[in-house]
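Could you please consider the sequence and fold following this short note?
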Amino acid sequence: MPASDTTPGPVTDAEVPAYLSALRIPGLADVHVHFLPERMLHKVWSYFDAAEQNYGHAWPIQYRYDDDTRLAIARGLGMRAIPALTYPHKPGMAAWLNDWNRRFAAAHRDVVHCATLFAEPESASYVPEALEAGARLFKVHVQVGGFAPDDPVLDAAWAALERAGVPVVIHAGSRPLPGAHTGPDAIGAVLARHPHLAFVIAHMGMPEYDAFADLAEQYENVHLDTTMFATGFLDGPSVWPDGYLQRLGALQERIVLGSDFPNIPYPYARQLSALTDLGLGDEWMRSVLWRNGARLLGLPVAG
């Protein structure tokens, strides 16, 4: 049964600010938001337009607007800092994307300076360079990149990120599509070598829920992000492991809001209402929607 102190979640995007006010939090700290170079973004949208072929079901992009409009929507929803996550699908792209990220963040006061990497020797130099330039959040997509996160070629990059304490949103679970290197084993191998690395496991690690929750329990800086979790689009209670919600309650300080905005097939409010419907209570929601992400993004947790 829902906790007695669970405030009903928003049904529409217009209701989100009032919901945050009812929770007494200053905004949303969403760590999983994408902005991309325009040509790359349109290629991503074209991929989702072919979702029937790629995924077996439609994936209508909800927020197909220009950068300025999407930034305004994110601000209106209550995002106090807006990530611009990018990720390469082949070698030689990451350094170029990092330069784009630097310029995009410099042009918008509330955009988080993000960066990315690929399993290539050059990562040993461009990751420290991005950190030196002020990058505060990295993104890695194991299935899209098609590389093993525990490839030794990345050891210098992981070590630099571990020393800097900069979080890495990493899509390593096997939904919506499995890859040759998806799953928890390689992530566990990286953490065994770099135990203080701040991995944020995208999509709660679906469908390998328990295995990624194990890593969050074992390593102090590992978090799980909520992207698409409980929305009914990629998963639902029928596929959650027994006792999983209880684990999430105990992991209150390790769960952080993620959404995949703007590339989501439903209104943003659906993610918030889905989390509310878990019935874990307002204090859990305050941690997940604001405090944990604010801490990772270097925002004042008290607002």
